[in-house]
Amino acid sequence: MLKIIFSQNTKYNLNAYAVSRILIGVFFLITGINKLFNPVFQTSMLKTITGIGFPYPQFVANFTAANEAIFGLLLAIGLFTRFSAIVLNIILFTALFTFDIPNHIPKDLDVFTWYSYFLYLPQVLYVLFLFNVIFIGGGPISIDDRWSGKRVS
Predict the structure, then answer these.
(1) What digits encode the pLDDT tens for the residues 103-145?
(2) For 74-109, b where at least 16 C-beta lie within 10 A, e where not — what string?
(3) 10 CB neighbour count, 10 Å cutoff
């Protein structure tokens, strides 16, 4: 098992990548559905959007949640994978710069301390992984891979 984990074989690396892509896609699908249909998450999302000051907060909350669900599903199945990663990154960057950074990182920090606070935000990890998806694509176990005709191995 350790031989497979530490293998330089591209097949194993891409399979691990595919599993990560699928799990992150499912994460966005579930959080989007919760924000659309679970009253607790609906209220929290609407309160956050209203507090930020977006116009038409109910529409923005529903639109954002629907996009999380739709593009999370597409990311999980590997359909329009790169585009899905771009859309999800736009959502994440908006959340980072309008809510997370202003509310979770103290002001007046030196650069290194600010950077360490920034890296503790979970959205940053999603952004970094989604950048990989933008450049690599769906990889194995994706509809994009099957349609393209060129298998990555």
Answers:
(1) 999 989 999 999 999 999 999 999 999 999 999 998 888 998 7
(2) bbbbbbbbbebbebbbebbeebbebebeeeebeeee
(3) 11
CA pair distance 144, 138, nearest whole angstrom: 6
- Exposure string of 119-138, with b = 16+ CB inside 10 Å and e = fewer, is eebebeebbebbeebbeebb
DSSP alpha helix (H) spans, the chain: 2-5, 10-37, 39-52, 57-77, 81-95, 101-104, 111-120, 122-136, 143-148
Angstrom distance (rounded) from CA 19 to CA 72: 14
- How far apart (Å, rounded) are the C-alpha atoms in residues 131 and 125? 10
